[in-house]
Amino acid sequence: MSGYSFDHLEIEVPTLLLDRGKALRNIAKIAGRAQASGVRFRPHTKTHQSAEIAAWFRDFGVSAITVSSLDMAAYFAAAGWNDITVAFPVNYREIDKINTLSERIFLNLIVDSRETINFLDTKLAYPVRIWIKVDVGYGRVGVHWEKHEKIRALAGRIDASAKLQFIGLLAHAGHSYHARSHEEIIGTYNESLQRLWRIKEMLAGEGFERCEISVGDTPCCSVVERFEGIDEIRPGNFVFYDLKQSQIGSNTEEEIAVAVACPVVGKYRDGNRVVLYGGGAHLGRDSLVEADGGSVFGYLAAPAEQGWGAAVRAAPIVSLSQEHGIMRVDGELFEEIKIGGLLPILPVHACMTAMMHGHYLTLDGELIERFNG
Amino acid sequence: MSGYSFDHLEIEVPTLLLDRGKALRNIAKIAGRAQASGVRFRPHTKTHQSAEIAAWFRDFGVSAITVSSLDMAAYFAAAGWNDITVAFPVNYREIDKINTLSERIFLNLIVDSRETINFLDTKLAYPVRIWIKVDVGYGRVGVHWEKHEKIRALAGRIDASAKLQFIGLLAHAGHSYHARSHEEIIGTYNESLQRLWRIKEMLAGEGFERCEISVGDTPCCSVVERFEGIDEIRPGNFVFYDLKQSQIGSNTEEEIAVAVACPVVGKYRDGNRVVLYGGGAHLGRDSLVEADGGSVFGYLAAPAEQGWGAAVRAAPIVSLSQEHGIMRVDGELFEEIKIGGLLPILPVHACMTAMMHGHYLTLDGELIERFNG
Known about the structure:
The structure is a homodimer of 373-residue chains.
Chain A: E1 15-18, H1 20-37, E2 40-41, H2 51-56, E3 65-67, H3 70-78, E4 83-89, H4 95-104, E5 106-111, H5 114-123, E6 128-135, E7 143-144, H6 148-160, E8 164-171, H7 182-205, E9 212-215, H8 218-223, E10 232-233, H9 243-248, E11 258-268, E12 273-277, H10 280-283, E13 288-289, E14 295-296, E15 299-303, E16 308-320, E17 324-328, H11 331-336, E18 342-346, H12 350-355, E19 359-362, E20 367-369
């Protein structure tokens, strides 16, 4: 197995490769749709966690971002971003960080309980923008979409606080990850919007005329061609995509912009095993359940003119230890693979794979730092 | 839920706590057995990856260690360790690191193919110690235990090289992780030794009089009271233990020396959910399959006079996102847990949990650095 265009990079250990061209095309696609639809594009940065990659988005007109922790918010604020949404429940233990940030930037927080609103009203030193987090069916966090009375009460309580500015409704339809077709993804998207619109209508009737709607998952944002009746999208994973998103139907495998280059350290005819230096410590531990019921932790990527291509189905990573990855390969491909060679492995879940690395290496040999906070 | 002795540490974000007393007792137990049995204790450092924690072992007479990468070897060599085994297949791409290290320290490598022996013989600048890696049933790497002829040929080839010094046979009975009782663990251990002894006997007949035996898994080393007919043990996980090892039967839950302190950020009666700031990014993604077939990503640890106690079965982590952990709790316990509180979560796989953190925080508030290479 050879012919990968990164062979010249002299890689010694498992290394997170980034195809900048693919990432830029992924960004351009979503940014273009957002612009055409007239909605704000506030990309989630938790996938790449890199100030340098975040800066690429500025060329596409992006001036606001989403993060999943206050430490990540502080990192991006230091890099010049001044409109940041923390799409994670308020952590009372970090109130000092909230006050430090909200002095300098437009900080957006999410709430779903009276308790948290009271906490913020008491503890905030500077005004912050508040979104009510709505659970549109995912069942993780947020006020259940049917609890109109509770949502009305929360909006009223926010409105009554001098420090909290009510912006609107924020949802993450994470159950779109269970989809396996465009139809299913669009079904989840439409259902989520119906639920949010009914709340917005109810709030309008109660005098809340300004109520934005922000939605965020990569499957919906990848498949829906035109966004209507919403104000903001917050996808994150799309910048790299991964095998999980391919399985859902968000992207083609050729659009996956990251791969882990793994040295081959063993070959065993017994069991058709190729052993890679590349385990859970480098790929992450997420797995795909394939049609045959087997678990797969990644696939070899096919060679391509630049970088890599689609997944080689005949070369799955079938088990992982901390440092070892076991690829099952037979026939001609087994013979072609050499100990000492370097193989690119497509990630199952790019967000977690990237977290295992301190930086990216682009195909032209540039190191890009990550935060990992 | 309160009464944890780390409440005074003013923890803001998910933090890896280390109970130094428990870790020292775990070390003392294995070190004591090794000493009583007259075998070399060469602990694996991949679990803790910390020069400071490695230094604790010196008080127990340890002067040799095991690592799983050359970068880890370089880190510990810089910390003063001069007898290091890299228990991972030789990565041809790192030959320069091998030569740099073997100039300064006693470097031990493992081989299982003629190709790798030839590679080393050609490329080594300084002598290294060589172990033949034997697959005693785990099926990951190593020469299959029945291939006596191949092992004899490899030993002969090593012997013929001026740069390679044949030390013996090294095995990792990783299939002990499938065990669920002391009897099963001991069965695996005895079977592995029988397989290694037959090879040793065969080699003795061929004139290889010096042939050490090194074995390494935490389950076997935790359960076997006295080591006979071997020269070295290399367990690693035992320093912290975890829920997986408890399930196997290696340890009691009270012996688990690390826990991730997670802030509580949400409570939902609907689904009896407690939402923790503590996801895959902090706990790792390994899961246990419990008796009822459900997957669990960690358990709340009970309060204890110092640190924490055993797992609270009524408080499992039932799902994980990148930053969120969802704990299912009902009844009185649900009422006791407060948003803003801090809960210790026992890890499923301590090696991978620790990799998600840059340092440990001891119960007396000391920060201990990790390498994470």
